[in-house]
Design a protein that fits this description.
3-stranded antiparallel beta sheet, 10 strands, globular, binds coenzyme A, Aminopeptidase, 34% strand, 7-stranded mixed beta sheet
Length: 252
């Protein structure tokens, strides 16, 4: 098969997803350039409805962002009800030295930079939330990262995006770094699907999710965020950090 043949093939349909069997007429497929109008419309709807604009900041160049996630350097999975796009999630395969490489942001060892997958954008239309879509789409993206030989998965999240951080942590990602990215206060959540991470569970720090300075310091001091305590009445989230154990032979 020539590269042209591959290009002309219809987008692959993913196998019927048992995870979506409770949702009527819902199916998934990989998006192509032709899907950009639907993708943009979904983003417009979600971004116009955010409770806090810091939770998700639009890309400077939306088209370039989409293009980077439908080619060899990334993929986008769409969730459809009938023909209607109700959710999507993206994965990126950044190159060493590329601007915005999260591995460089968190100080990953140089030899690991080409083993990184970006667990990139995910959105669910408001009326479809509460069905576990982000978590299911995360599980798919972790499997894709493994399949691409990129077991170091990194995701950037706003400190105020409690739902997204919760969903990522529930599937085993931990807060590996907190700091300033492009003028925004952001966590980078991590999971190393190859080596895993060991924690000293007896050495913990409880930190308010809005305490930027303490969150940055925890990352610098070798602590990672593994859990949360929610105070729904006060609208606060306290994050639980434990010390990550570095084993001498393993690179960070
Ligand atoms: C983030 C998003 C994709 C998740 O969609 P979803 O899969 O439908 O998930 P929900 O929004 O229903 O979140 C439900 C989970 O958040 C948890 N949650 C809700 N409020 C929370 C809070 N204040 N603190 C912590 N967790 C919270 C719920 O308990 C639930 O988890 P559980 O099933 O373990 O109990 C969706 O809300 C969205 O599109 N948001 C706007 C765009 C965005 O923020 N994208 C992610 C960028 S990183």
């Amino acid at each position: 098969m020539t590269p042209t043949d591959v290009h002309n093939m219809p987008p692959p349909l993913l196998p019927p997803a048992a995870a979506f069997s409770h949702l009527p007429r819902v199916a998934t497929r990989v998006l192509t350039m032709e899907d950009q109008p639907q993708w943009s419309a979904l983003r417009d709807e979600v971004l116009s409805d955010l409770p806090d604009p810091d939770v998700y900041v639009r890309e400077d160049d939306e088209s370039a962002f989409f293009e980077a996630h439908v080619g060899p350097r990334g993929q986008t999975i769409g969730v459809f009800q009938g023909e209607h796009l109700i959710a999507y999630s993206m994965i990126g395969f950044p190159q060493s030295g590329e601007a915005g490489h999260l591995g460089a942001v968190v100080g990953l060892a140089p030899e690991l930079l080409d083993k990184v997958a970006h667990i990139s954008s995910c959105m669910v239309l408001p009326q479809w939330r509460g069905n576990g879509l982000q978590r299911t789409l995360l599980a798919v993206r972790l499997a894709m990262s493994q399949a691409h030989g990129r077991p170091n998965c990194l995701a950037m999240v706003s400190l105020r995006n409690h739902r997204s951080r919760h969903n990522l942590m529930r599937l085993g990602m931990h807060i590996g770094w907190t700091g300033d990215i492009g003028g925004l206060q952001r966590h980078v959540l991590r999971i190393d699907l190859q080596s895993g991470t060991h924690f000293d569970m007896g050495d913990e720090r409880l930190i308010d999710s809005a305490d930027f300075a303490a969150l940055c310091a925890a990352g610098r001091d070798g602590y990672v965020g593994v859990g949360e305590l929610r105070d729904a009445d006060a609208g606060r989230v306290t994050l639980r950090f434990v010390r990550a154990l570095r084993h001498g032979a393993l690179p960070r």
